[in-house]
């Protein structure tokens, strides 16, 4: 393997310009280094892995942000992880801190519920939004840790996941278990800040968090179980504000969130369908295959119906329904233009759902302020 130190030394000697990017890119592609959870590439997995893969990645990422002896300032999640001490970076990558899209998708249903529960004419509780944001970060990290512990052997066989800390050997299963205990302890501290009803409701979701990663071994519908898990905040957010759930609002909202997850995670699963077949795991992408678009269209109709019903029962106003119209148009375009055989397009459509969720949150807030 071309040593990372030699690459760094060589690139420092190259005249400023685009050349250093080309060389670092060639180095990455030649050796088959994978970024983790981004869109898949055509690179192959190492047959002989480096002794310190984390150090190699740190050097390469430094090279790609360095020019003329200066580092460009960036606050991206990946940059923050790269700036951490080398021995800490594998744990941050284990909880996907460098890939925040999953945290957003877990957090957004919480924000919808908290905003719907706000008093008429008032903004949602900022303290509660912050508390749930912290909880989402911790629970997403715990979920990823559990997933990687279960899937260590599978991840080694898939190019996109072979560089994950447990699969690559940077972190042992025992170390991951200790780290998981720390994350769950902190998450419990967040949960204990809520009322008793919400504590019991939040604790009930732990079984889903633990068992979800196993579902792809037994059913073609693991995305449905992920939906049940990721949208639990649609129930918890309301109860945290009101003291209990109003099921006429919470259930339609929860149902809509599950349908939404089926849409975006089926799109995501199409990136890995070839690898999934090789390693023997299941997904809705493999279940639907060329009929994916009709299925996704049905999920969108169900999602929008649930959001309308939740809005009616929560006495939402015109801005909310105007935003729902925009969301329906966005999802329609997303499905119509989707190329399920193009991983880059699947990734682009998948990450666009963060903005969709933020738009719905904005619609709920403005709709609530519109109330008398």
Automatic annotation (TrEMBL):
It is found in: Membrane; Mitochondrion inner membrane. The chain crosses the membrane at residues 101-120, 171-190, 221-241, 253-271, 292-312, 318-338, 350-370. It is a multi-pass membrane protein. InterPro entries: HB_polyprenyltransferase-like (IPR006370), Prenyltransferase (IPR039653), UbiA_prenyltransferase (IPR000537), UbiA_prenylTrfase_CS (IPR030470), UbiA_sf (IPR044878). It is an enzyme of class 2 (transferase). The keyword Transmembrane applies. It catalyses: all-trans-decaprenyl diphosphate + 4-hydroxybenzoate = 4-hydroxy-3-(all-trans-decaprenyl)benzoate + diphosphate; an all-trans-polyprenyl diphosphate + 4-hydroxybenzoate = a 4-hydroxy-3-(all-trans-polyprenyl)benzoate + diphosphate; all-trans-nonaprenyl diphosphate + 4-hydroxybenzoate = 4-hydroxy-3-(all-trans-nonaprenyl)benzoate + diphosphate. GO terms for cellular component: mitochondrial inner membrane. One of its GO terms (molecular function) is 4-hydroxybenzoate polyprenyltransferase activity. The keyword Magnesium does not apply. NCBIfam families: ubiA_proteo. HAMAP family: UbiA. Belongs to the UbiA prenyltransferase family. This is 4-hydroxybenzoate polyprenyltransferase, mitochondrial. It comes from Maylandia zebra (zebra mbuna).
């Amino acid at each position: 393997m071309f040593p990372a130190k030699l690459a760094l030394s060589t690139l420092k000697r190259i005249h400023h310009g685009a050349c250093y990017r080309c060389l670092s890119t060639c180095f990455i592609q030649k050796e088959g280094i994978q970024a983790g959870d981004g869109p898949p590439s055509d690179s192959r997995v190492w047959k002989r892995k480096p002794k310190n893969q984390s150090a190699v990645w740190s050097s390469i990422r430094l090279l790609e942000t360095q020019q003329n002896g200066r580092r460009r300032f960036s606050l991206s999640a990946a940059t923050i992880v790269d700036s951490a001490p080398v021995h800490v970076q594998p744990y941050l990558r284990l909880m996907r801190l460098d890939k925040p899209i999953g945290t957003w998708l877990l957090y957004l249903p919480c924000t919808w519920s908290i905003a719907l529960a706000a008093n008429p004419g008032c903004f949602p509780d900022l303290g509660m939004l912050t508390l749930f944001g912290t909880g989402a970060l911790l629970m997403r990290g715990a979920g990823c840790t559990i997933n990687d512990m279960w899937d260590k052997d599978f991840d080694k066989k898939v190019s996109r996941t072979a560089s994950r800390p447990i699969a690559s050997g940077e972190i042992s299963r025992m170390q991951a278990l200790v780290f998981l205990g720390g994350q769950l302890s902190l998450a419990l501290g967040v949960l204990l800040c809520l009322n008793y009803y919400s504590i019991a409701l939040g604790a009930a979701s732990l079984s889903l968090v633990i068992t979800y990663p196993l579902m792809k071994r037994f059913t073609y519908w693991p995305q449905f179980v992920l939906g049940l898990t990721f949208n639990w905040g649609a129930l918890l957010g309301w109860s945290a504000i009101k003291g209990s759930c109003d099921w006429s609002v919470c259930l339609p909202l929860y149902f809509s969130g599950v349908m939404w997850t089926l849409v975006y995670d089926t799109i995501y699963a199409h990136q890995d369908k070839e690898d999934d077949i090789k390693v023997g795991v299941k997904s809705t992408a493999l279940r639907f295959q060329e009929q994916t678009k009709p299925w996704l269209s049905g999920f969108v109709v169900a999602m929008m119906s649930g959001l309308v019903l939740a809005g009616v029962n929560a006495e939402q106003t015109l801005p909310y329904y105007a935003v729902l119209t925009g969301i329906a148009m966005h999802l329609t375009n997303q499905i119509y233009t989707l190329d399920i055989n193009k991983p880059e397009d699947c990734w682009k459509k998948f990450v666009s759902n963060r903005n969709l969720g933020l738009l719905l949150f904005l619609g709920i807030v403005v709709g609530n302020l519109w109330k008398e």
